[in-house]
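Troubleshooting: if your tokenizer reports a length mismatch, compare your output against this known-good record of 98 residues.
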Amino acid sequence: MVDLDPVIHAQARLRITAALATLADGESIAFPRLQELLDMTAGNLSTHLRKLEDAAYVEVEKTHQGRTPVTYLRLSRLGRRAFEDYTDTLQNLLGGTP
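Known-good structure output:
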């Protein structure tokens, strides 16, 4: 049996990756907006984002709007490919065709 990517497979990271995969390639979302969409605490979201970032699946850009720090998030090309592979594997495991 083929294993599902353990980095993505955790429920919170799967939700994060799926949400980021809905963005166009190269498009990003602000941390508070993603937090709101996923209804996650900042600490929980940060912890799971760190694991995705360590795997090079998520790119994090820290900048400022005026004096306010802002963090933008997006799937890297590797992350997008990993998510596509994950969903293909899941479909195959469930007996569907990718």
